[in-house]
């Protein structure tokens, strides 16, 4: 959309002065009488005006004029400089809209003029449909004028929403945006792109990880004021922190609607520390060995709510554990069921100027949602973990109902096809060992056949009992025997024992006690004797 701008420079009782052209915008010339009234001709062809000068010279002229007016009171002038920028509305867009809607908006604009504060002045939506920016300050400077021109050029005539679909009348959540969205939002409010980068670093870099407006250091006064009025920084509130006997921490967060999610911080060997983040409140997958699945799905977490889990973990434990080195999306919920927010949150985490995690150390886990899995492999450069947990469709249909829609052959064939076109890190297959269900040596041999042709590692995970579970954990000796079969076949295998289970912080134990609403599925007859 092409927008036309007219600039008027006035001092009451003086004649308008021509200031040439600045930043690509045409500046009009007009006359003014003692009362400040002026005449203007919006239809004048600017190219035919004889006093039009080159940009560099006109910028110099404008700068000199502003300097001259700084001490207007001392020189006996009657008012400071006043700038007005008029934006002619785009009539072509009105024709494309329905007549009824156009008329409704036109009447609304006439009856309710909008006024937006801009620090040095105000923006008005005039009765004609044009914008007018008035700067009443003798100290107004060139860079602020350029910001104002840029903001008006980007502002749609009838915009009801702002960045990321947030209503313009409500505060935006800064951590919902990636950097490109944050940059657009900052510029739409009349500030430079460089200030967007400074804000980005306050949120995610420089060991600041700001969670309140008071922690936004290094930003100028006007920029901070705009953020205070229009943006929110904090999405989560720490409700409690529980410490397990092995040093694992479980953080309980409260959401705005009163829901509670859990995040686990796991100190590892060799100076590594992992944070296990949640992506949903509850889970819709109903895996039979997982307590979160018994809750059912309550809601998806937003991008900000996911990212802040990692930020809080860093802030709380940096002095004790050092920097958080790994992020795993293995907390509450199925990450790929909330794929839009998960991919966006992961991108913020691996951004060089953001939280700056290595992509290979940010792992997204899935139970096997094939369409979302394809999208993840094509759009994200983070690592992938697939929760397998069975070697036959019969068993997996029972313990992981998602298999009834996307069975083992479909899931594994998708991985083979997608991974051959784009280089990825090795897939991590997670295998929860359930005594008498999926831990036989025949299961180990079938697992070897299933993963052939897929660059992978295998995690053997000890089952962690919880209230209402029917399964028993496989003894450690049998887990080692199972692992040896895989290793002899050339598989890369890790044996993962329980961490944080005495505080219900281990794999499959997350969720509020007594909050199980989804009933267990009927077990196949051949496994009845293996259950509690």
From TrEMBL:
Annotated ranges, domain Radical SAM core = 269-496
Which Pfam families would you find in this protein's record? Radical_SAM
Alphabetical UniProt keywords: 4Fe-4S, Cytoplasm, Iron, Iron-sulfur, Metal-binding, Methyltransferase, rRNA processing, S-adenosyl-L-methionine, Transferase
Required cofactor(s): [4Fe-4S] cluster
Among its keywords, does the record have Transferase?
A: yes
BP GO annotations: rRNA base methylation; tRNA methylation
Where is this protein chiefly located? cytoplasm
Coiled coil ranges (UniProt) are none
The record's annotation in NCBIfam families points to: rRNA_mod_RlmN
This chain belongs to the protein called: Dual-specificity RNA methyltransferase RlmN
The scientific name of the source species is Rhynchospora pubera
